[in-house]
Amino acid sequence: MKENLVKQKIRRGEPTIGTWLSLASVIASERMALAGFDWLTVDLEHSPTNWETAMAMCAVIGAHGVAPWVRIPSSSDENIKRALDLGAMGIVAPMVTSPEQARAVVASCKYPPDGVRSLAGGRNDAAWDTDSPTYFKRANDEIFVCVQIENVYSVEHAEEILAVPGIDCAFVGPQDLTGALGLPPMLDSPDPRYDEAVAKVLAAAQKNGIGAGLMVASPGAARKRHEQGFSMISLAAEVRILSVAAGQAVKEIMAGRQAIVGGSLAMPGHAWPCLPRQPSTPGATVLIDVCAVCGEEVLEVGIGIGSMLFHRACLPRCRFCQQPYTVDEAGWDFRGTVAWSDEWGYVPTLESAACPTCTDDAERRDYGAGW
Fold first, then answer.
1. Is 226 annotated as catalytic?
2. Which residue range is the domain that position 307 belongs to?
3. Contact assessment for residue 86 and residue 125, using Cβ atoms and an 8 Å cutoff
4. pTM to 2 decimals?
5. pLDDT digits (tens, 9 = 90+) for 60-74
């Protein structure tokens, strides 16, 4: 039977990283598992995910060697039982506000005589690479039990709540906690009242010999919290990771386009730049290409014509007056002057461009008045 090694690391205070899964997507869950996280939490409290989808998500997460947790909709015996029977290696119980509630959560995670969990099938054996008798015997020691501390009362009574035997980790719910403190709900509040509350939870967890965790919005905040002693860090949720990455990519692309045309998007769809090789934002995606004329990488902001990219020095020139191509001037003529390239497809031939001034002459000279 599998050992819950991530549970052991969290209890020892060793840093682990994961994220919340709220897209109700098996494919997204698999991609997050492949990213290298230690654990992933299928969120059933604040997402449209149903139990059947949650089971498939846990299966694909576990198949890639990542620990699947489930945050249950509420901290009831029924929810805990269903989450564990579908193959979760641990549960995250929201809004735990008293030692009595914490004891009930632990009892629902444990088979008799340590608790009240009902013995039944599901995919326990498959999820843990074992048979049912072995699972029933060892599950009490392997299931990860995490309670969320999310309001002022829970923070003030954290030592008592976290002293309940069987709890493995206390996880701060930052948005609920900031809201309860009268602050704008957010993940990484700079308000000292939030930091003070978080520090109380961490101290209570360490005093009771268990792990502590919380959700953060950035890798920098994750490193900071790891250094403070938090061992279960969630890098936001997969939907936020997706939206931030997509938004940043669009900003980088638009910033490059605006740089090449002096802040405007003249001739949209006709001219486009490559991005700087070293973007100003760390971790941003960089588009690198090569000049269609000289074949060297375009490391500065370049200029595109059709599907080709050029250094400024390699831009095509008007075949009549030798004026270089400019992206902010309409009327350049490439009509009828394309050639096939295995690399580029149909592209303008560089020796046949005509600037706006010479375009009429080019039409008459090359194609006749009927063009």
1. no
2. 250-367
3. no
4. 0.70
5. 999 999 999 999 999
